[in-house]
Amino acid sequence: MKRTHILFLLMTVMLSACNSTKKYTSYADYPVYDGNDLELTYSQQATSFRVWSPTATEVKVMLYDNGNEGGAYKSLDMKRSENGTWTLKVDENLKGKFYTFQVRIGEKWLDETPGIWVKATGVNGKRAAIIDFSETNPSGWENDVRPPLKNFTDISLYEVHVRDFSMASNSGIKNKGKFLAFTEHGTKNTYGETTGIDHLKELGISHVHLLPVFDYASVDETRPADNKYNWGYDPLNYNVPEGSYSTDPYNPVTRIREFKQMVQSLHKSGIRVIMDVVYNHTSKGKGSHLDLLAPNYFYRQNVDSTWSNASGCGNETASERGMMRKFMIESVVYWATEYHVDGFRFDLMGIHDIETMNAIRAALDKIDPTIFMYGEGWTASASPLAEEKRAVKKNAKQLENIAVFSDDIRDALKGSWMHQDKPGFVSGVDSLEESIKFGIVGSTQHDSIDYKKPIYSKAPYVNDPTQIINYVSCHDDMCLVDKLKESKPANATEIELVKFNKLAQTVVFTSQGIPFIYAGEELYRNKKGIHNTYQSPDSINRIDWNSKDSHKDINNYYKGLIALRKEHSAFRLPTEEMVQQHLKFINTKIPNVVAYLLTNHVNNDVWKDILVIFNGNRRPVTVQIPQDEWNLVCHDGQINLSGLAVINYTLFNVAPSSASILYTK
Ligand code: CA
Fold it and tell me: How far is the centre of ligand 1, averaged over its atoms, from the C-alpha of 121 (Å)?
């Protein structure tokens, strides 16, 4: 009751000064424009503008010769049109010009904005650019196709930041820190080993997941020599590529063409491309490019009308409102079609409402149902939108073909993300067995799991393994090497830390669901113990490609894990039912040991039965295994798919802090 009253008061105050503006008693009353011509429609003959600003008293288009400097050469009034929009048509060829919108609310002219639907900008994203999109396509773009993909469980994700990938002097890559780094083949480190895209191909991952590559605010694109680093979770223009990753941020065509060249190159190497999208908040709230068109509308408010902050970044967007929902759907569809992007990772997805997420899924299904969607099923802070409406982990069963990250398996394996000194299963902590088992079945329902025991969730939360991302580390928090070091048992050796590392990723890559690694983990990367490197220098964040030489053993092991998963469909079961019928846990009665069987050529695997044993103890254990002729392919930190040994006895010795994998023919 209180809320309605305050909102009504707010709207009345806001709108009372407007000459001929309708009064809206709630944001739900704002009109929704459902056309597809918002903001800019360009042709050689004419340029049409249509901007949504329902509470405006007056709206202008400012035209510029330059994307950054100088005043407007023309200011043109827009006319009020349907559903809160304003229009203007200019019968000239405006290619090469720049523009902004300026809105008057009551008596006050707000700052200029390039708009929300803006698809090309000048440097630093301040002014929108009028370009001919046919000039942004690299040669052969019309033949670019997504590499084949059958089930989402066939995916293996590699999360990488554009700068991290190439900035090191030993990357051998010319276009350091640029989209074009992903187009360079034949690059080598100091020791002549492959780096860059050739390394990714050799590693065998299926998807590259790029940290934010849309236009973000924190890096000044006019000062590349500063080499300023940021992860990019501070959105400025959602539908424009980040300028600092292009070779010429002043030319609006360059960043678009180079982004497409990156996608094209990865596709040619058989790798799909995923974008990290951050629709949950904007870099600044008040005065953002969204807010300057419809003040307050795109953001949620608390009952006292102050802005809420579920993102922890000062504002949170309101996906449940018609125009924000429309924008999110169209933005994702735009990247999937114009740029051929193959998947989307939603930052703090728990801020968005379920209905919007399912609407995005439905829109992508019309383009290609193999486009992958996943997100963080949580928020950073409390949101005023009711939890039952939000796309949080516990509501994942209501999300259709959208996956969520499993923090359950992550923290069971390595220990709490919050308490850096707390170790997990792989470092010898017992009582985490049920959490590990919960991870192995892909967070689905399985009769052998005691759901009271997993560390966070107390119930299965996804419909099928296609909906779960299994991982032990990502860009957030300490990377795996640092975390295992920080939390190591008092007398643990360097050699043991490597064992813990391999064991953790073996669980990730053999569990049902979708495995995910943070770039450089395969080269034993560290970040000097820093847990939040969002603006740390390249010296902390970049991949040191010479580690490929000093950590050959780790790199080979990770490659082996990826190959194991790729060649054996038993680890990629697409349905909960298949997991329930073919995944059988073995009770070894030994603490900190988890063992299971995948039976009877499940999912058409060439292997008949597969036995997987994880020993989290820092001592060897003897496990009673079924009598058969077993072929050992993974043991004591070694993987060899053509076989390490044949085992035809039943008392099997598992090495300390390691996994053993065996199969029958
Ligand atoms: Ca930028």
Answer: 10
